[in-house]
Amino acid sequence: GGVIRPLDTRCDAGGKGVNVARALSLNGFRSRAVLTLGQTEGQHILDLLMLEDLDTRPLLVKGASRVNVTLVDVAGNTTKINSLGSPISPGECRGLVALAITATDEIDWLVTCGSLPPGVDKGFHAMAVEGGKSLNAKTAVDCTGEPLLLACKAGVDLIKPNVHELRDIVKRDLTTLGELIQAAKEVIAMGCKSVIVSMGSQGAVFVSATDLLYATAPKVKPRSTSGAGDSSLAGFLSKYDQGLEVALLESMAWGAAAVGLPGSKMPVETDIAPLRGISKVTREPDLSMAVLGD
User: What was the pLDDT predicted at 272?
Assistant: First the structure.
C-alpha cells in the first residue's frame, strides 16, 4: 500500500530459456535463442539481446511480450511479480517449435524453459522434446507442474527442478537429502533420463539411473537470485562433455556468480573464475542432511 523508491533500476531481456542462451553466449559458447516477440515490448527485448550479440531467432506473434518485475532488497531477498503473458495460438506454438528445429544445424542440446502463456497446450514442452529427438539432440526442460510431467513422459534427457518444484511433483514434503534423492528417482521412473535438483545455498544434487552426485555451493553475498538457476543450467551444459563431476562443479560456479550480480545479469568469465574450486562434489553424500529449500 506504500510507495517504493528504488535505489537503482535495470532492464534485462530475460526469460528462463533466453537467460540460458545469454549465459552461454557471453562465455563464448555457441547458443541461439528462439522466442516469441510481440508488439512494442518485443522490439525492446530484441534490441537488448542484440546489444549482447546473442544469436536470436524471433517468432512474431499477435500478443504482447511478457514483462516481469523483480524487487530486490538490500539483503538480496528477491520478490518476483510475474505476469501471465498474452495468449499464444496453437499455430504460433507449432511455429515456435518448428523455428527452433529449422533454425538449427548441428546442436548438442535443445533447451525449453518457463511457464506457459494462457491457452497453450500443457504438452508444449513435450512437443519440443520430440523435436529435439528428431535432431538427435539431447533435451533439457525447466518448467513446473503438468507440463514438466508430460516432458518426463516424452523422455526428456534432463530436468532442473528446485526443491519446492520437486515437492509439487511427488506431492509430499522432502526434508532430507535422502528423501530428495528418492523423489528424483521416482521422477526418473516417469521417463526422464536425469534430474538436477537445485537446493539454493546448499548446492545441488544430480540423479540418474546410474549416477548420484551432490555438490556444495560457493558462499557469495547475494544481490539477486533472478536468473541464477538459468545460469547454473548453462554452466552445467557448458561442461557436460567433460563429465558429470566437472559439469556439476561448473554449474555451481555459474549459479553463484549470477547470485552476486544485479537483476538478471548473466555472469562472464571474470565473475565465474574466482568461484571455481570452492564447491566440493561427492558420490556419497550425507543422506540425513536437512534440506532447507531456500
Answer: 98
Upper half-sphere CA count for residue 243 (Cβ side, 13 Å): 5
**Cβ-proximal residues to 209 (8 Å cutoff; 6+ apart), any chain:** 188, 193
Taking the CA of residue 29 as centre, how many other CA atoms within 13 Å lie in the half-sphere pointing to its CB? 22
Q: Which three cell numbers stand for residue 263?
A: 537483476
CA dihedral 255, 256, 260, 263 (to 10 degrees): 20
Q: 207: which DSSP letter?
A: E
pLDDT tens digits, one per residue of 80-95: 888 877 888 888 888 9
Q: Do residues 137 and 157 make contact, with C-beta atoms less than 8 angstroms apart?
A: no
The residues, any chain, with a CB within 8 Å of residue 91's CB and separated by 6 or more, are none
> In the chain, where do the E strands start and end?
32-38, 55-61, 69-72, 78-81, 109-113, 138-142, 158-159, 194-198, 204-208, 212-215, 281-282
Phi-psi region of 268 (alpha: psi -120 to 50; beta: other; left: phi over 0): beta
Coil, strand or helix at 146: helix
155: left (phi over 0), alpha (psi -120 to 50) or beta: left
Question: Which of 253-257, 258-262, 272-276 has the weakest average pLDDT?
Answer: 258-262
- Nearby residues of 16 by Cβ (< 8 Å), 6 or more positions away: 113, 114, 142, 229, 230
Question: Is the separation of the CB atoms in 113 and 86 below 8 Å?
Answer: no
Interatomic CA distance for residues 156 and 191, integer angstroms: 7
pTM of the prediction? Answer: 0.91
173-222, pLDDT tens digit by residue? 999 999 999 999 999 999 999 999 999 999 999 999 999 999 999 999 98
